[in-house]
């Protein structure tokens, strides 16, 4: 089991519980996480959902050793089917859960980690949080749920993609990606306080408010952009396969260094 699920005082707390691997996301973790989101969505006793990570880091992203075929055997079709299900469809489903959600982020939030916090309605970041998407190093233009432009603005999104550098919690707050930055020691306490305040609001009003904002973003093109850019993402994998095998498998050591 890689996920802990608890409900108290109308708040469902979903915890990524793989701290020894910096909460890297293997297939089992993502499947368990999706089941927890669905459970919280369907539970009438849950008003607010909190997503958090156990340990030093929120999430180091996808576990690149997880069930991947060898570089000789991997195909673009396999990559597309696996990623469209676990990386795109899951994130969109979590985004559209009809209840408010809050991500509490500390330490590193790398690449696939963004696919966990960006679908949440609010983000509370510890002052040590760092957000990054360095997959251009692998010949890919960004992670599968490509919310970069919406979350960061066009020029900041290009900067972090072009350079691979991390965005600090303070920078993220300045551009509106993060709602609040708090001391690391107070992250859970302040996130829960925010969740508790939201939980006192009428559930139907919360549902309608979330729907209104999400639909506004969709009218502006969010949903269509996410879908179309996923296909662009897949061409990066295709190029990687045709040029020199599968660079993701070759870049493991470099990626590991970024979370140490």
Automatic annotation (TrEMBL):
GO molecular function term, any single one: catalytic activity
InterPro entries from the UniProt entry: ClpP/crotonase-like_dom_sf (IPR029045), Enoyl-CoA_hydra/iso (IPR001753)
Name of protein: Enoyl-CoA hydratase
Pfam families linked: ECH_1
Entry's Gene Ontology BP terms: fatty acid beta-oxidation
Transmembrane portions of the chain: none
């Amino acid at each position: 089991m890689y996920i802990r699920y608890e409900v108290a005082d109308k708040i469902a707390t979903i915890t990524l519980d793989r701290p020894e691997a910096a909460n890297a996301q293997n297939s089992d973790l993502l499947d368990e996480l999706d089941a927890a989101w669905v459970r919280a969505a369907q539970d009438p006793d849950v008003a607010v959902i909190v997503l958090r990570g156990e340990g030093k880091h929120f999430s180091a992203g996808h576990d690149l050793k997880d069930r991947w075929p060898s570089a000789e055997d991997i195909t673009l079709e396999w990559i597309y089917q696996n990623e469209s299900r676990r990386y795109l469809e899951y994130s969109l489903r979590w985004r559209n859960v009809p209840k408010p959600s809050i991500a509490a982020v500390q330490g590193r939030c790398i690449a696939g980690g963004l696919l966990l916090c960006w679908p949440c309605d609010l983000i509370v970041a510890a002052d040590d949080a760092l957000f990054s998407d360095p997959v251009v190093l692998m010949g890919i233009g960004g992670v599968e749920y490509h919310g970069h432009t919406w979350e960061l603005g066009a020029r900041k999104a290009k900067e972090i993609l072009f350079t691979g550098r991390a965005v600090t919690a303070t920078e993220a707050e300045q551009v509106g990606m993060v709602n609040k930055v708090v001391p690391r020691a107070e992250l859970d306490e302040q996130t829960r306080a925010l969740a508790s305040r939201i939980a006192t609001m009428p559930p139907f009003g919360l549902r309608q408010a979330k729907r209104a904002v999400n639909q506004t973003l969709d009218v502006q093109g969010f949903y269509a952009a996410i879908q179309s850019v996923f296909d662009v993402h897949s061409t990066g994998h295709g190029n990687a396969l045709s040029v020199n095998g599968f660079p993701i498998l070759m870049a493991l050591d470099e990626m590991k260094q970024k979370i140490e």
